[in-house]
């Protein structure tokens, strides 16, 4: 189904490179491993891949602390391997998106090392947010902002003469100094970075912290400093969503259009736009700004039919109204996996409903109008690994707060590919190092080799849903009309009569359109829509069907 632009209803697979597939035996995934896995992704039926950061980095935040924006960290390979990956992906018809991190760099970046050697007010310091401290001896931070990963958002340096010096801003860890985007040298360098990768054939970028680049120019105290901590839904309005940021996205969009004018291929900018409401997010998704922004409210929504209907309606109203499409996502490298997230529902149901709900949510997402992103392992129904011992945790959130709440290692454990015991084919060779995070023994039941042969697996559900998106004209872009349904059932019509329905309850309900052929299902015996077990899509005889 030729979409007007490939990205408007594309399904992109997020590859967390470090945990995808290790080709060198060092226990860490790499670009050559991704290249090996491309046929697996082609078979799944996605339209492209988003590669999480693989740039040179001291790995304080697994690559989101970039020390060189124009190279490949040796642990992941080199530029030659990257070029082979892009060539193979394009040969298989897969688009390639890179993760770009413009809000902050690594404290190992040459710019920051020069800033440490510079003097207050010097040109290198002006690339960041350096300021004198408050208090008699400058011993207090310049303001009361808190970092997303705990602690103050400021750290104090030693000046060259060894005295206590200025403070610098870092909205995440001290190893991730925020760049000063009001300094023209910063956007100028990122123009070169984008061109460096676009010239190597990439099809676009996932933009990290896309709402955060500009801070309030006076860096004033926050009226509610505690809101800055990583509370998922709140962001510090003084450090995020400042109006100047939109000019950056207009400039980046113009750069993409410059490349498209050369070869006719669309490039894509998808933003991680962490703002409070869909209407705030809609301000970023414009014909002259970002093409897409992840709609996180479905990802953070608990399993509740009314919540889902509300957030989906808001997204379709506020974001689609800009003429853009909504970009749905259920999982990523920062969030507890749906199989586990849905296991403890609003009424405290535990246990087995998690996988069924995750299957239903997957089909629901793939039936919605717009684009969608699938996080590696989601297609295998991988649960979160919740019992990693403290000593193996790598998340800076744990190391800075001591709390396991919001830590992210559990959704980043290296994928299981085959076999009955770790490393489950993630790494090869008898003398291979152990995977960088320990894999639980029960990963065996989720390994890709089993998934591909089990027609009732998550993998086959995703593949079936992706195939239907590609073959049914009602899916992908286009209209959605809600249907009146029994309580606990969410159902809508796509196009000319394709009914998509999910039963959020725990009890079966009559099939919305008796006798209609079932197109794709989580686990649906004919004739009923079993409780909390699945979604199913039917070709309704009469699109005006009332589902009561
Ligand atoms: O929603 C948020 C604000 O409340 C947060 O989720 C914030 O947007 C998010 O933590 C930013 O995440 C991204 O940048 C981080 C990195 O650790 C994450 O992995 C990445 O997804 C710093 O680069």
UniProtKB/TrEMBL annotation:
- Keywords associated with the record: Hydrolase
GO terms of molecular function: alpha-amylase activity
Q: Which InterPro entries match?
A: GH, GH13_cat_dom, O16G_dom_2
> Carries keyword Hydrolase?
yes
Give start and end of each Glycosyl hydrolase family 13 catalytic domain.
14-412
Q: Which CDD domains match?
A: AmyAc_OligoGlu_TS (cd11332)
Q: Does the keyword Secreted feature in the UniProt annotation?
A: no
GO biological process annotations for this chain's record? oligosaccharide catabolic process
Family of the protein in this entry: Belongs to the glycosyl hydrolase 13 family.
Protein's name in the database: Glycoside hydrolase family 13 protein
Say which species the protein is native to. Answer: Streptomyces piniterrae
């Amino acid at each position: 189904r030729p979409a007007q632009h490939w990205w408007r209803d594309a399904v992109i697979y997020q590859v967390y490179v470090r945990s995808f597939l290790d080709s060198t035996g060092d226990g860490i995934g790499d670009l050559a491993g991704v290249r090996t896995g491309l046929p697996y992704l082609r078979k799944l039926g996605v339209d492209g891949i988003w590669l999480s950061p693989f740039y040179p980095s001291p790995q304080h935040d697994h690559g989101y602390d970039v020390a060189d924006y124009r190279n490949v960290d040796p642990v992941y390979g080199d530029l030659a391997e990257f070029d082979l990956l892009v060539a193979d992906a394009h040969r298989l018809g897969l688009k390639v998106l890179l993760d770009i991190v413009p809000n902050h760099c690594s404290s190992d970046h040459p710019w920051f090392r020069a800033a440490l050697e510079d003097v207050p007010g010097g040109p290198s310091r002006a690339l960041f947010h350096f300021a004198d401290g408050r208090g008699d001896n400058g011993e207090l931070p310049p303001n009361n902002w808190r970092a997303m990963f705990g602690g103050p958002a400021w750290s104090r340096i030693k000046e060259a003469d060894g005295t206590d010096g200025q403070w610098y801003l870092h909205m995440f860890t001290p190893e991730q100094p925020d760049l000063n985007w009001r300094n023209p040298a910063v956007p100028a360098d990122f123009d070169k970075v984008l061109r460096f990768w676009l010239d190597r054939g990439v099809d676009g970028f996932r933009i990290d912290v896309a709402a955060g680049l500009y801070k309030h120019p006076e860096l004033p105290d926050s009226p509610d400093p505690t809101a800055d901590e990583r509370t998922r839904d709140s962001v510090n309005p003084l450090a995020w969503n400042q109006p100047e940021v939109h000019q950056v996205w207009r400039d980046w969009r113009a750069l993409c259009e410059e490349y498209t004018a050369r070869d006719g291929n669309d490039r894509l900018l998808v933003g991680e736009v962490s703002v409070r409401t869909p209407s705030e997010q809609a301000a970023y998704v414009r014909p002259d700004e970002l093409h897409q922004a992840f709609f996180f409210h479905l990802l953070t929504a608990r399993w509740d039919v009314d919540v889902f209907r509300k957030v989906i309606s808001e997204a379709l109203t506020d974001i689609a109204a800009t003429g853009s499409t909504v970009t749905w996502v259920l999982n990523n490298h920062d969030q507890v996996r749906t199989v586990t997230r849905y296991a403890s529902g609003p009424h405290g149901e535990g246990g087995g409903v998690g996988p069924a709900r995750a299957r239903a949510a997957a089909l629901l997402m793939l039936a919605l109008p717009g684009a969608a992103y699938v996080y590696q392992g989601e297609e295998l129904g991988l649960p979160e690994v919740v019992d990693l011992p403290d000593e193996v945790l790598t998340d800076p959130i744990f190391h800075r707060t001591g709390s396991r709440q919001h830590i992210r290692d559990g959704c980043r454990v290296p994928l299981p590919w085959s076999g009955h015991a770790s490393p489950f084919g993630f790494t090869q060779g008898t003398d291979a190092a152990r995977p960088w995070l320990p894999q639980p023994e029960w990963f065996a039941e989720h390994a890709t080799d089993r998934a591909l042969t089990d027609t009732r697996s998550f993998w086959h559900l995703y593949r079936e849903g992706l195939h239907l998106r590609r073959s049914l004209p009602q899916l992908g872009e286009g209209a959605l009309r809600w249907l009146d349904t029994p309580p606990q059932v969410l159902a809508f019509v796509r196009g000319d009569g394709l009914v998509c329905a999910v039963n959020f309850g725990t009890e079966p309900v009559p099939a919305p359109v008796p006798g209609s052929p079932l197109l794709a299902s989580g686990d649906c015996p004919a004739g009923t829509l079993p409780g909390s077990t699945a979604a199913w899509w039917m070709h309704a005889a009469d699109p005006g069907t009332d589902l009561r």
